[in-house]
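Figure 3 (text version): structure tokens given as input.
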């Protein structure tokens, strides 16, 4: 063989050898052998442990699905928790604070389970306070002795509000403006009570002392009290009940002639002057509340009859012994006409067909005289099985009243007096209410702000769950206009709206994440709700599987 032939054979052999070596390595572009058509999971089998490293990637916001949840109906479902004379809570002012806390939480949990959405809690009963105040002593109904602080480092009112909000319940702070004492035992009052600090403000009438509504100093004092509460606490509303000028005592005249003679306008009658005093207070309170926190509502629960028809053709077809306009000097219709209040809860504590004051006829009358202000009907379950009216022997009377109110377009809910009436007793009435009327949770009505506001929609970056909680991480701090979020988790989109609602209350704070009980679910729904109760945005997400326990 010549040298040229040897060179060709040697070159061919080398190429064959290299080709054979290359064929032993897997092709980088060839798909791995696997019968499954889905993605491959796990790591390649190997005899050695290879180090793994998760690549660092920038956070990417979760994208909401193009899926709309059904609307949640709106209806006010409130209950009055009366603290005066320890009617509802605390059970006793001498109970330890820890027991008082347990009793309060039991009330909240009970009404939350009944699908209520608001509590109206009395925080000032008669010149006193259930919170540390610069203007009033501690209430004896909280601590046993007026002026003595509770044995705790907690602020009771801050705690009470938080616990209500954690359960998705609005907190309406209920104060009594003009009642200074509940009896004439002034020796039991704290020396810091206004009876001692401003004796010239006090008028004795019947078995109580009252602030003189005709004094400008009294009005300014009440405005300062309300401003203190609105400024310092995350309340949803300031609430007054029916006590303005006191109900008339037989053969007694309210002793305000001196202030009437001093401040009346020329030719002004005593009755018109009294109504003017109350009107000026309501107007100024509205201004004070809205200039401090525009989203805090101002609601009033007056006596159920404005005027009888025999006194005024615009009045209701009733024969009430006393009325708002003529006896309590509360011109309720004027307050609604001038938009000085955000809601009204007339106390219609009569049965449907009561001959002197029919619940049915009064519901009609208030619905027709609302001036666009939302009306909630005040119901009196405290009369169930306790009243001479035979209608109250029927445990279904309350349901009948609620259902009737729902037929009237201007009626937007109900409130019940008082908490113990279907809690300590009459639980069958409460169960009927839940089974037949309040079978599903609702949101309370929303309110429109006076000035339009642009609210930044929250962006969710991630959702992480463990066995105890689910944490929803946000791109940036929440817009302070966001009040709370309603969170639901489920594995099917079609039934997601029926899942348990978890409320994450932020109260306008600029948080970066929310926490709710653990939701190890395929889907997550979040409704973002602002200070005015409006749903700013509803978002539905498919939760990443790698974020679940």
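Below: residues designed for each position.
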């Amino acid at each position: 063989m010549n040298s040229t032939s040897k060179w060709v054979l040697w070159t061919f052999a080398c190429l064959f050898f290299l080709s054979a070596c290359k064929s032993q390595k897997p092709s980088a572009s060839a798909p791995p052998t696997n019968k499954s058509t889905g993605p491959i999971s796990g790591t390649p089998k190997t005899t050695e442990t290879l180090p793994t490293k998760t690549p660092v990637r920038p956070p990417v916001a979760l994208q909401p699905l193009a899926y709309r949840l059904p609307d949640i109906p709106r209806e006010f479902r409130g209950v009055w928790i009366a603290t005066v004379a320890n009617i509802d809570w605390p059970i006793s002012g001498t109970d330890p604070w820890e027991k008082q806390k347990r009793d309060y939480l039991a009330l909240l949990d009970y009404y939350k389970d009944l699908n209520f959405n608001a509590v109206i809690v009395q925080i000032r009963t008669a010149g006193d306070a259930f919170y540390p105040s610069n203007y009033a002593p501690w209430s004896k109904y909280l601590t046993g002795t007026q002026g003595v602080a509770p044995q705790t480092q907690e602020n009771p009112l801050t705690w009470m509000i938080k616990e209500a909000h954690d359960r998705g319940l609005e907190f309406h702070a209920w104060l009594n403006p003009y009642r200074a004492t509940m009896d004439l035992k002034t020796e039991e009052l704290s020396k810091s009570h206004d009876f001692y600090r401003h004796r010239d403000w006090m008028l004795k009438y019947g078995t109580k002392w009252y602030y003189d509504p005709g004094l400008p100093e009294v009005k300014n004092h009440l405005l300062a009290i309300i401003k203190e509460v609105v400024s310092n606490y995350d309340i949803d509303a300031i609430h007054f009940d029916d006590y303005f000028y006191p109900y008339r005592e037989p053969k007694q005249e309210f002793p305000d002639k001196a202030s009437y003679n001093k401040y009346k306008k020329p030719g002004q009658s005593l009755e018109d002057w009294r109504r003017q005093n109350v009107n000026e207070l309501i107007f100024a309170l509205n201004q004070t509340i809205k200039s401090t926190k525009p989203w805090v509502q101002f609601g009033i629960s007056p006596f159920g009859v404005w005027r009888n028809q025999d006194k005024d053709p615009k009045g209701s077809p009733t024969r009430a012994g006393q009325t708002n306009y003529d006896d309590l000097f509360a011109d309720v219709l004027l307050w609604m006409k001038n938009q000085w209040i955000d809601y009204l809860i007339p106390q219609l504590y009569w049965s449907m067909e009561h001959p002197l004051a029919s619940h049915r006829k009064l519901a009609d009358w208030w619905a027709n005289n609302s001036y666009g202000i939302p009306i909630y009907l005040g119901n009196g379950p405290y009369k169930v099985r306790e009243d001479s009216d035979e209608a109250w022997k029927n445990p279904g009377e309350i349901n009948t009243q609620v259902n009737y109110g729902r037929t009237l377009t201007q009626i937007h809910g109900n409130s019940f007096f008082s908490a113990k009436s279907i809690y300590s007793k009459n639980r069958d009435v409460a169960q009927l209410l839940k089974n037949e009327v309040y079978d599903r949770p609702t949101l309370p009505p929303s309110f429109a702000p006076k000035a339009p506001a642009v609210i930044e929609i929250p962006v969710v970056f991630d959702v992480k769950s463990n066995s105890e909680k689910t944490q929803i991480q946000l791109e940036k701090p929440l817009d302070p206009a966001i009040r709370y979020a309603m969170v639901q988790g489920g594995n099917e989109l079609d039934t997601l709206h029926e899942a348990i609602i978890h409320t994450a209350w932020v109260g306008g704070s600029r948080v970066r994440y929310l926490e709710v009980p653990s939701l190890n679910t395929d889907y997550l729904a979040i409704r973002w709700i602002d200070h005015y109760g409006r749903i700013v945005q509803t978002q539905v997400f498919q939760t990443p599987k790698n974020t679940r326990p």
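The first strand starts at residue 76 and ends at 81.
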